[in-house]
Backbone:
């Protein structure tokens, strides 16, 4: 399985990642959402380099010009709710893509220390033969991503799966390597952090992306 850590390259992406991590800047929820969107746009651009292309002729007012255009049918799959702003960045670039949404969240037990991932809702087109870009800004344990993937498989088998995240833990990367098909999965991360704390939050991470984007939940 190919894992691309985009922070290993010097680009404007590093600025946006640093801003969503910054405890002072991230207090501006509108800017936080916009940075999620911009990171989604950059990762979408990087993923686009790996699609299947065909040369087509485009008619101009003065003649015709060749253009290499991707031919894959794309489905953007997002885990609610934190993924909404991130999803929008991908949709800005893959504006003719179909869309899938999965409600997957941590359901904490009475001790508030342990949890299991619960899936309550899924809306998706058929996936057979299509490229599925599965997005979640925080890939902490990999459990939500795996369950969402298996829920979406009820809609068919995609040609290739691109897992896209802003920040992943190394533990989640290793977990996804075990749980996803090796030959047909690629992981894209804006950055990869080394640790999870006792509550399974990424360290240093950035906190709760959903709360920072949309306000605290009860």
Residues:
């Amino acid at each position: 399985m190919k894992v691309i850590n985009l922070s290993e390259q010097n680009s404007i992406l590093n600025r946006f990642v640093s801003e969503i991590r910054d405890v002072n800047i991230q207090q501006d929820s509108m800017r936080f959402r916009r940075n999620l969107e911009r990171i989604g746009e950059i990762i979408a651009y990087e993923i686009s380099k790996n699609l299947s292309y065909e040369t087509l002729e485009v008619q101009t007012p003065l003649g015709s010009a060749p253009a290499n255009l991707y031919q894959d049918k794309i489905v953007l799959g997002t885990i609610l709710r934190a993924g909404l702003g991130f999803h929008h960045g991908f949709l800005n670039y893959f504006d003719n893509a179909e869309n899938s949404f999965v409600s997957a969240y941590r359901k904490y037990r009475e001790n508030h220390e342990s949890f299991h991932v619960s899936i309550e809702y899924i809306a998706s087109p058929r996936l057979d033969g299509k490229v599925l870009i599965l997005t979640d800004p925080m890939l902490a344990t990999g459990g939500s991503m795996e369950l969402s993937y298996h829920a979406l498989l009820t809609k068919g088998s995609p040609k290739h799966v691109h897992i896209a995240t802003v920040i992943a833990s190394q533990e989640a990367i290793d977990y996804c390597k075990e749980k996803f098909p090796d030959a047909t999965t690629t992981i894209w991360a804006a950055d990869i952090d080394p640790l999870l704390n006792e509550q399974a939050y990424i360290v240093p991470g950035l906190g709760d992306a959903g709360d920072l984007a949309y306000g605290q939940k009860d």
Observations:
- The domain at 2-50+71-214 is CATH 3.40.50.2020 (Rossmann fold).
- The mean pLDDT is 92.
- DSSP finds six helices and twelve strands in the chain.
- The longest helix spans residues 29-48.
